[in-house]
Amino acid sequence: MKIYTKTGDKGETGLIGGERVAKDHARIEAYGTVDELNALLGAARRAGASSELDAQLESIQNELFVIGSQLASPKENDKLPVLEESSIRQLESWIDEAEEKLPALKQFILPGGGPTGSMLHLARTVCRRTERRVHSLSRETKLPGEIPVFLNRLSDYLFTVARLANLNDGVGDVPWKPEKGLL
């Protein structure tokens, strides 16, 4: 099978079930941004993630494929995997575990740090964009309720593990220092 099909040459793409839509349709924007987030998590894994963080990110990547398949299907499809409530609870557990290892956060911090932490901060911003795209789509069609909750929790997770990765790399949080008069 060839990787190119030429079916999208005129600005349309196919959804699960065969329906064709414009490549900038809200549904495509939503699952395309999920794909972008997934790719960033793959890059973060290779940027020096610890074995524990790597395993967590791999699990999350699999959940993002579940979300992507749900978003790519305009109709309920019982053949597709479903995002479970337990996936949200797992993220919350990982956040709690990471926070126990971190100093208390008392002010805003600048994103950045070491290679892994920086990639995770970038992934967090893409996760927030993913949330916005999913919410836009949800105004047009009903989506499984776990998807926006998972994405919201995922952005919290990514912020927390970015801080932890930086701490483990010997790079502390850099506090935001607003110029006088800005606040």
Description:
This protein has one domain (12-101, 109-168): Cobalamin adenosyltransferase-like (Hypothetical Protein Ta1238, Chain: A). It contains five helices and two strands. The protein has helices at residues 26-46, 51-71, 85-101, 115-138, 146-168, and strands at 12-14, 20-22. Strands 1-2 form a two-stranded antiparallel ribbon. A hairpin with a 5-residue loop joins strand 1 (12-14) and strand 2 (20-22). Helix 1 (26-46) packs antiparallel against helix 2.
Entry keywords:
3% strand; two-stranded antiparallel ribbon; 2 strands; 5 helices; Hypothetical Protein Ta1238, Chain: A; mainly alpha; 183 residues
Total number of domains: 1
CATH superfamily descriptor: Cobalamin adenosyltransferase-like
Report the β-strand fraction as a percent range.
under 5%
Strand order of the largest sheet: 1-2
* Anisotropy-based shape: elongated
The CATH class turns out to be Mainly Alpha
Helices and strands: which structural class?
Answer: mainly alpha
Per CATH, what is the topology? Hypothetical Protein Ta1238, Chain: A
Counting DSSP E segments of at least 2 residues, the number of strands comes to 2
Element pattern in H and E: EEHHHHH
Count of helical stretches: 5
How far apart the termini lie comes to 58 Å
Radius of gyration in whole Å, from Cα?
Answer: 18 Å
- Going by CATH, the architecture would be Up-down Bundle
The residue ranges in which pLDDT falls below 50 over 5 or more consecutive positions are none
Largest sheet: 2 strands, antiparallel
Mean pLDDT: 91
Helix content estimate? 55-70%
